[in-house]
Amino acid sequence: MAAPPRHATMQSISNGGIAPGTDRPQTQQTQAQLSQQSPGLRVPSNRKTIYDRHLNRSRNAELSRASFAFLFGEMVTYAQRRVTGIQDLEKRLNEQGYPLGLRLLDLLFYRSTSTSSSALSSSSTSSSPPNRPLRIITLLHLIHGPLWRLLFGRAADALEHSVSPDTPNEYMITDNDPMVNTYISAPRDMSMLNCAAYVAGIIEGVCDGCGFETKVSAHNQPTELWPSRTVFLVRFGDPVMEREKVLERAGVK
Amino acid sequence: MSSTKTSRIGEETRVDKVNAELVTLTYGTIVAQLCQDYDSNYQDVNKQLDKMGYNIGMRLIEDFLAKSGVGRCANFRETADMIAKVGFKIFLNVTPTVTNWTSDNTQFSLIFEDNPLADFVELPDDGRAQDELWFSNILCGVLRGSLEMVQMQIEAHFVSDVLRGDDTTEMRVSLVRYIEDEMPPEEE
User: Do A100 and B127 touch (CB under 8 A)?
Assistant: First the structure.
């Protein structure tokens, strides 16, 4: 199914430090947008705008977990009133996570660049900014490690490739105890529901932002030890798989 | 209760933490979704945010009382102090300034130096959002909901916001009345 790129329908409120582009976010483009002040918006005379504060200011900041739980719970309740079923609800949560993924991707790259350049600033070696992942595995490692650490303070618990020869485009990221589900209890008739669909949306945003067309869904896979264990199923589109083969032949890492 | 003692409760109350950016971004996506659902009718978005806050407030007060262990406030001035120095400190890790009291001690302002909900935010440049949308309006609802649970009917609204180009972010809170304990209606 060839859906139009979702960036086109993205919201105009920029809650991600980066003014939203209508196209795929590219670093150069966002920098251009950052340097020019929108002419129509009023700014405080003391210049307390997002352009005047450092993007790393909130890097290690923490907030109450209860506040997150209250907000997320209210977000799910609100979404629930406007949908017809579980799938619809999960789709909506996914869509709300998606723009976060696009922005977090830029944030991750921005931060990994600034730390490596400051670490090397004393030496004369020129530090090249980290490249965006070109191959699937690099991308998945970025999600499994740095993205998870940024959001949840730890890496995800597992990263697996589908063993079935029919679905080589499927990968699984496992979180034994997703933080977002800690305070969610689904009613019995909605036991299939997994509100980590929100996180699936974030993953989808990151992949799409990197140029990997993907569908991501969250599934309950409880074990005795981990009752809320969740598997994020990442399914890459056919064009991505074809490109992957070409890149592999060309020896691109 | 003395003001310094109140601050100490706010500082010392232990809370489980999460990454602040996750909270900020989640709130952002909620507001963005509302703007989309209500077709950028910002008055309706404000109302819905207030309603969501009210729902949160009704449950948050219990968490607040359990965590802080504080008792009943003697008067509305003490309540204001408690909101700013304990409530906001626990849940948003900021301490707004309480000021601009009316002489009858029923209305005050909270001035926010910092507002984690509005980190990274720029309102849409559509010529209306800066005049109509109160981005952090959920906070008004939270206060309304939580105080109602402890027998205070209040009214809260923002009067300025740095996101709108104002120099400060200020919320006005007014005590409407103390709710008397009402007996359940007699059974017939």
Answer: no
